[in-house]
């Protein structure tokens, strides 16, 4: 399943995001693509080998979390299959 993670800090790298996942106990993703996003806030599409219930738990962990002085927005991505 895919996670859309919006409002990333502009300086955030894939390694930063992976470190956040380790800190929160989120399993390692299969792959990740970071795009410029809107208003200078990058977005990431992240693929996981998780079922729907586990993905909902990941969204709850990330959505609204303040990270690197930015409030993250997390949602399940269904448009990029």
Can you characterise this structure?
With 81 residues, the chain is α+β, with helices and mostly antiparallel strands. Helices cover 27% and strands 36% of the residues. Strand 2 and strand 3 (41-47) form a beta hairpin. It has a single domain, classed as Alpha-Beta Plaits (2-Layer Sandwich), CATH 3.30.70.330. The strands form 2 sheets. Strands 2-3-1-6 form a 4-stranded antiparallel β-sheet, with helices on one face. A two-stranded antiparallel ribbon has the order 4-5. It has helices at 14-24, 52-62, and strands spanning 2-6, 31-38, 41-47, 66-67, 70-71, 73-77.
Layout of secondary structure:
Elements: E1 2-6, H1 14-24, E2 31-38, E3 41-47, H2 52-62, E4 66-67, E5 70-71, E6 73-77
Tell me what portion of residues adopts beta-strand conformation: 35-45%
| The CATH superfamily title | RRM (RNA recognition motif) domain
Strand line-up in the sheet with most strands: 2-3-1-6
Major sheet size, sense and barrel closure = 4 strands, antiparallel
The number of distinct structural domains comes to 1
Mean of pLDDT: 92
Number of strands: 6
- Helix and strand content put the structural class at alpha+beta
CATH level 3 topology: Alpha-Beta Plaits
| Structure annotation, total helices | 2
Distance between the termini: 9 Å
- Unreliable segments of 5+ consecutive residues: none
CATH class assignment: Alpha Beta
What CATH architecture would you give?
2-Layer Sandwich
The best one-word shape is globular
Relative helix content = 25-40%
Q: Which sequence of SSEs, written as H and E, runs from N to C?
A: EHEEHEEE
The radius of gyration is 11 Å
């Amino acid at each position: 399943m895919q996670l859309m993670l919006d409002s990333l800090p502009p300086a955030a790298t894939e390694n930063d995001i992976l470190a956040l996942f380790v800190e929160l106990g989120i399993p390692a993703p299969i792959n990740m693509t970071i795009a410029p996003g809107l208003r200078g806030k990058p977005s990431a599409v992240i693929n996981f080998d998780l079922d729907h219930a586990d993905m909902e738990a990941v969204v709850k962990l990330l959505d609204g979390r303040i990270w690197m002085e930015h409030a993250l927005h997390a949602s399940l991505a269904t448009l990029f299959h």
